[in-house]
Amino acid sequence: MNDVQKTGSDSAERPGAKTSARRADLRARLVAAGRAAVAEGGLQNLKARDLAAAAGCAVGAIYNVFDDLDDLILRIGADTLARLEQGLAAPPGPAPEPAEELLRLACGYFSFARADKALWRALFEHRLAGGRPAPAWYLEDQSRLFALVEAPLARLLPDEPASSRALLARTLFSAVHGVVSLGLEEKLAPMPEAILEAELERLVRAFAAGLTLLPPG
Amino acid sequence: MNDVQKTGSDSAERPGAKTSARRADLRARLVAAGRAAVAEGGLQNLKARDLAAAAGCAVGAIYNVFDDLDDLILRIGADTLARLEQGLAAPPGPAPEPAEELLRLACGYFSFARADKALWRALFEHRLAGGRPAPAWYLEDQSRLFALVEAPLARLLPDEPASSRALLARTLFSAVHGVVSLGLEEKLAPMPEAILEAELERLVRAFAAGLTLLPPG
DNA sequence: GAGAAAAATGAACGACGTTCAAAAAACCGG
DNA sequence: CCGGTTTTTTGAACGTCGTTCATTTTTCTC
Q1: What's B70-211's CATH class?
Q2: Over the stretch A30-68, which tens digit does the pLDDT of each residue have?
Q3: Which Pfam families match (chains A, B) (predicted)?
Q4: CA–CA separation, B211 vs B209, rounded Å?
């Protein structure tokens, strides 16, 4: 409903430029305040009145630039996804062995989750009201994560069809996510992080080794 | 409001028997009503006033038999865990190949999650207020699930130390959970269930095959 | 600069989990 | 059985939440 892309430089000529700039600025301040609130106390700590106070606006102003808090939470999630993608970016240099690269991604994912626990949690904890599906722009942000896994998989399994590899990338991502997710879960018996990382390595190495034995699917 | 039938025979012997029986009955009715509410509309659909209406008691009565709604949710979760454990019980007959048994458990887990999606989700969606740790009785209910995985793992890796196997059981459970969890996640691009099950099989088979190649850890 | 249009405001609304003074029920010695 | 005491149950009330909308303030147009 509210796509404001106008971040033009001149304010006097274009009608509504000042307003759009203020709206964009308010959006940014609200996302920043929301991210800080979630980072501090989880999704439960995201309160409309606190947000308004932190961003220096009225509570009603939130609803001028976002449909509702769910909308704001999705933007925070997109931010988190972008930072995660950035944190998993491949370092320069020659491409390592596929299994080593997969392991690097898995450990990077764990590292990110550990460092930004509350924000990372919010990615999966949050449910859209009424079971609505996530907007397309959010799904695209996610698919970039799976793509990071797909590249080393292609080198590991050159005979695998591309469609099958895409599924496999999501599966491997999901498996690593599961280990990290339940590993950091406070409702389960706690796990030392060093052990968790060793288990992650065992999962990725065993899975990668086993994959090369299975027939292509 | 509530008619209490006086049996007359047991009221004289046990002091407070009638009271504790009513409390136990109320607990059961509240858990049943809560489970129905969660099954219908997720954790968000669990409202104190609705619960009281469904169980035929005052809102305050909930707090006579539960600390708070978190407490009630944990009981619902324990119920769900018990039904899951029951659904994963090994069928009679000779023990199959370890990998096949692991696959059966994974598919059983997926089947349960699919059939009781909202209740299964509630197991992981729910966070205790203030980041409190889960009570011991709840952790014990969970550990029984990991134990189901440990048995076939012991046959698959007879040279693995028991402590390492316990970790591995939790890791494999977590990996399968991750695939099921993100597979059924509505905030991700949807996955057909048949494909999801095939991916689950690929994960378990590759992991089991790869494990036998890795050195014991 | 004045009048029209658009945006920002914050008090008000309904719903939520939880509490607690009061009412009801259970208990117990005579 | 009864009257006084204790325990349990009750539901109106409280504080907080996300969200709305009549009012005020700002921006735009001529």
Answers
A1: mainly alpha
A2: 999 999 999 999 999 999 999 999 999 999 999 999 999
A3: TetR_C_33, TetR_N
A4: 5
